[in-house]
Every structure is written in structure tokens, then in C-alpha cells.
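BUG-290 | component: ligand-complex export | severity: low

The export step for zinc ion jobs runs without errors, but we want the raw record kept on the ticket for reference. Input record follows.
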Amino acid sequence: MILKHFKQIILLAAGATSIAVTLSIILFVTAHARASQTEVIFLDVGQGDSVLIKTKYGQNILIDGGRDNRVLDRLGRNLSFFDRKFDMVIATHPDSDHIAGLIPVLERYQVDLLLDTGVLHDSNVFEAMREVIQQKQILVRFVESEQRYEFGEGVILDVLFPNKSFVDKDIDDNNAASIIVKFSDKEIDYIFTGDAPKEVEDELVNIHGIYLDSEVLKIGHHGSDTSSSDLFLSMVTPEVAIIQVGKDNRYNHPSFRVLRRLQDRSIPVLRNDEMGDIRFVSDGEFVEMR
Ligand SMILES: [Zn+2]
């Protein structure tokens, strides 16, 4: 399936870009290029989030790991047997449907850098993750401000949130500290919002405005009505929305209200519970689903 309208949207975004994210820039140098295409794969891990990014320059990035070991099977299907390294892993927030699956990943793969909120959480899963990080001496960077990571020409990961420090804080709603990133392969943009609620979406709109414009949006909080406000959708104007959700989940995700908001905007919805893994392949100018 080729998403035909992308180019038009891209040109609009390129003409209007005002990059508010310039604080810290980190360059990733890599030894091997991986052909000319970048893959972004929304992994079918049941009720939870997990996204694998394989850049055209050969780096691997993992955003969240779902709620259990299922992620290992999905990674096995999408990475070659010898590909055992992540240049970056992002733990968007410490709820178990995002980090439980990261534990076996951190144990079995080489992880060069882990981005974390620094939020404290009282759970066995959280403690187990801290233990692995300690045992394997994994480099952790807490997100306390906007950051930019460059993986090669045009392949950029902007961390948009948190723009303040949650390090060592025990907060009521972990979702409100979710790490939010915009990933770009030149003109193809993706936004991943973790489980961020509408209040955080509002803040992003205020700060970044049209810079949020992206072709692909991972819908916040598995399609819960607490996310995906009209305002946010009207700023991101995605060509396609992905909902990472498990079959017959007990939260009744996604909410019919969110589905209606997407339908009202004629935004196609792709769901992991209906489609399994959802893979996008881009060359920097066009993107297609395979
Ligand atoms: Zn979640």
C-alpha cells in the first residue's frame, strides 16, 4: 500500500518548519549502511507499545518493549540473527506495558544508550529493569529537556518531551511524563507520544506548533480518550494513525471517541490487534507500508 498524499504534506511541512528543538545534538557514527531505506515497524506485542526503527545508516532504535517476552519473538522476525545491538532504546515511561518487555531485551542485546524519564515507580518490573541496567552497566540518559539525535544525513530523532526534569520524582500519573519523540527520515516524519495525556499534547502544540506536522502518528495511550485531542490531531495532520493495542483488552482501548475523531478527519487507522506487525519503509522522500 502506497500512501499517495505524502508528498503534498511533506512539501507543506518542509516550507513551514520552524525547529524549536536545538538544545543538544548528538551524532551517531556507524560503520555500515543498510541500503537506502529506513524501516519503522510497529511490533505486535499485544496490549502495550513497542516500535523498532532500523535506519538506512544501519542503526537500530527500540521505543518501548511491550508488557512481556513477546517482543523477543517480534524482534527475531524483524532483525537478522547477527543483529544483536541497539544504538538507542527509549523507555517512554515506567508502566509495565511499556518496560516489562525491555528487560529481556536489555539482557540479551547490546544497548549503547537508554533514554529514560528518571521517574520513580513502585513495581517489581521497575526494580527488575533497574537491576539489569546496573548489572550490564548500560549507559542511561535522563530526558530533562529537548534533545536532538542525528543518525546520519536527514535521519533525526527529536525528543520533544519531557522538557523539564522528572528525575527521582514519584508522580501520580506516569503517563504525563512520557517521552515523546519525532523521528524523521528526511521528509518523512513520525510522532510517538507514549501514553501522554491531552494536557501534554496541548503543551506540545503551544511550544512546537506546525513542527508537529507528521505523516505517521502513533496514537497516544493505545487509543484512550485521555489522548488524541482535536487540537493535537489538527496540528499533526497525520496521513495515517497507528494504534498499538491488544485484542479484547480489558481497558476497552481504543475508545470509540478517538476512532470517531480520526474518522471525522478521514485518517486511516491501522491497529496491531488486527494487522500484526505494521511496517513502513521510507527512502527519505516517500514512504510505503509493506
Ligand atoms: Zn501504555
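Assignee comment: Attached the raw record above. The first helix runs from residue 6 to 16.
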